[in-house]
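Slide 14.
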Amino acid sequence: MNAANDPLLSVRNLTVHFKRRRSSPFATPAVVHAVDGVSFQVQRGATLAIVGESGSGKTTTALSIMRLAPITSGSVTLDGSELTALEGAELRRMRRHLQIVFQDPYSSLNPRVRAGAAVRAPLDLMGIGTPAEREERVAELFRSVGLRPEQRYLFPHQFSGGQRQRINIARALATKPALVICDEPVSALDVAVRAQTLNLLQKLQQDMGLTYLFISHDMAVVEHMCDEIAVMYLGQIVEKASRQAFFDHPLHPYSWALMSAVPTLGHVRKRSTGRVRLQGDPPNPIDPPPACRFAPRCPFAEERCRTEIPPLRPIGLTGRQVACHLVDESGNTPHPRLYG
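Slide 15: predicted structure.
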């Protein structure tokens, strides 16, 4: 196991490619570049948010870390243990240390299984504790997520959407995992219920010392939840920064476009002077641009952006990183007029 100051999760050059079905027996199968060389770390007890628009590769990254999507190449290490090569019983044993909360609180639960049995299922599958200890653990988890222990005998249709997501959170915490991946955990909930669920996740993190990998496209949610942020575009990370640094002044033009879309009720929009509307759709992940993948939509793109791959490089001494030719070593951007 790693020392206390080492990252809990370390992802290095993660690549996930999917081959599409051939159009004919003699055709070369097309390859979808879902995730291309992604690297990041998550410190113990912290929350790293991965953000980006739909199709950027956020969820595929999360599923591959869980070993629910096939990894083409790269390394995923949890608390010093390499996950990439694990199979069978070894992988099942390791899964008690990382769990996931899915986006949809409705389809995530079997409608024919009582809520308590759903929460107890990971304990049963992994043989954790005696039957009596498992029942006590389930009752404890229901209390922890704000539900009454007697509600564990109800079926999913007898709960609201927010309550169902609390059941999913309780199920994810059943095995006392070190890492919890939250894949858009509040996007299907009403606005008022979202705030309650986010506050619950933060309280559980403080009480249990949890580490979160938080997947989202909602920048207001990310600002509320995360310690660090990684921005993905078309399968690659284009910027990494602390929450304060990112929301004070995003560097990558794509990050700037994401930030400009935050509603005016959020204080973040007060730092910018206008909405940025990107032209066109994201490129095809089967045939991504050869250099900067954002260049076809970037209003500042130059010739080298279309011919040279921008590395994800450090900016200053703060640990911040950006993959853009147009951001200099001091963090000066091509869009300074948008910030006051």
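Speaker note: Residues 264-270 have pLDDT under 50 and may be disordered.
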